[in-house]
Amino acid sequence: MKKIKDKNNFYKILYALKNKKVIAYPSECVFALGCDPDCEQAVNSIISIKKRNKNKGFVLVSSNYEKLKKYVNECSISDKMKKKIFSTWPGNVTWTFPINKTTPKWIIGNYSTIAIRISAFDVIRKICILFKKPIISTSANISGEKPYKKFHQVKRKFQSVYVLQEKTGDYTNTSEIRNAKDGKILRKYKFYD
Is residue 48 classed exposed, middle or buried when 0-12, 13-18 and 19+ CB atoms within 10 A define those classes? Predict the structure, then answer.
């Protein structure tokens, strides 16, 4: 894992996550908004900031699968599909799994599945390792608008959010979303220039 340039900035992000705040951080393609997925107050803040429909579910990103297990019910996923899923991680593919009974409603919206990804991107991995759990990952934009790719754009648009000053990854597309039960593509890659 690469060294993060500004540790102070990075620990401010960690402090914000632990204190029910929303953060903005670079992802593989664009800046993302995130928070502690177990904090309803913080998730509602993202919904408000983005003007997002609360019935839509969120993606959770993590540095490893173990930290995501409490949110998913993998009993209905075949061993063959598990092998296929794990062959794409860490990486830029998001999979929707059936939820556990204890999965918070505020992160799944009107769905009975949860979208999860094990990221290969150093910044995301470092946040999740230090925070010791997954975080929400949704594009840093107002719903329906183009997501931001630059730190200064995010800082100007979302002034109440703690923004990590790092660069986004080299991907030109957001993650593809697939169904963990059958492998069907639910959302193709979205390209941004």
Answer: exposed
| 8 A C-beta contact, residue 134 and residue 128 | yes
Report pLDDT digits (tens) over 80-91. 999 999 999 999
SS3 breakdown of the chain: % helix, strand, coil, rounded to 5?
30, 20, 45
| pTM, 2 dp | 0.92
Neighbours of 9 (CB within 10 A): 14
The one-letter code for the residue type at 101 is K
DSSP 110: T
pLDDT score for 191? 44
CB contact burial 55-84 (16+ within 10 A = b; e otherwise): eebbbbbbbebebbeebbbbeebeeebeeb
Per-residue model confidence as pLDDT tens digits over 169-189: 988 877 889 999 999 998 875
Q: How far apart are CA 122 and CA 192, in angstroms?
A: 21
